[in-house]
Amino acid sequence: MSNELYIIGDQSRMVVKNLILQLIKTDCRLNVYPPLVDEIDKLPGESIKLLVLLSEDIEFLVIKKIASMQAHYNYNICFIGRIANLSLEDDNFFKKIPSVKLESYTVDVEKLLTLMNTYNCTRKRILVVDDEPIILRSIKIWLDNEFDLFLVNSGETALEFLDTHLVDLVLLDYKMPTMDGPKVLEAIRSSYRLKDLPVIFLTANNDRQSVITAMQYKPDGYILKSKTPDEIKAAVEDFFKNRAFKE
Predict the structure, then answer these.
(1) Distances (CA, A) of 98 to 75, 104, 143, 198, 229
(2) Which of 126, 125, 124, 122 is nearest to 136 (CA)?
(3) Which of 198, 212, 134 is nearest to 166 (CA)?
(4) CA-based Rg of the chain, rounded to a whole angstrom?
(5) What is the 8-class DSSP label of residue 85?
(6) Domains and CATH numbers, the chain
(7) What stretches of the chain show up as alpha helix (H) in DSSP?
(8) 10-residue averages of pLDDT along the chain (247 residues)
(9) In degrees to the nearest 10, what's the CA dihedral of 50, 54, 57, 63?
(10) pTM metric for this prediction
């Protein structure tokens, strides 16, 4: 990305004005827009660096519009500040927008710009869990160019990994020895920290009853292993593309 920076913020607020004044002193070219839904439509239809300066009275429709634009154009977003009195639904939506999130306006602008340049908000981290080495190798080949992949071969190892690592999605084999997919999903859902982590089952069984049984455990979806590499890749991409609009 270039050194051009797009900013959404209310310049009548002193903290916003001061931060923008600091950014003017850098070599960034600034483009500042007020936090209004109609103004979001003026943002470029391409990947940009976008700094969103939040305030207590910003309309949440502005945030949803930004998320919609990001889904289409892969915006690299940083949110600064807080929105007060969000509903649980809106709070969950906001938390799942791929972005850097900083609550305090007291930031070193050079460090902020470095963070925005180096933190890839759009490259998702996926944990793949399958006891078959050939499946793990194949998925790595199919998805490695688009996502950061982590591979484990058992449910127990998956839970150990999730204790110390953050991921955006788990691709979970439905049928495994010792600890199968449903048991792993149950453990994830029973964890306060992991309960909202998206999980998609990988299953070799494509008969109707098997699919119905798998969905009874309420995963975020399922992918048949019999699908082509392009179909599996498209299924994962579509999941991330559409997720923000399902919350």
Answers:
(1) 9, 19, 19, 14, 25
(2) 126
(3) 198
(4) 20
(5) S
(6) 4-118 (3.40.50.2300), 125-243 (3.40.50.2300)
(7) 14-24, 37-40, 60-73, 88-95, 109-118, 133-143, 155-164, 181-189, 208-215, 229-243
(8) 86 94 93 95 92 92 93 87 88 82 88 76 84 95 90 95 86 92 92 89 81 82 92 91 54
(9) 40
(10) 0.53
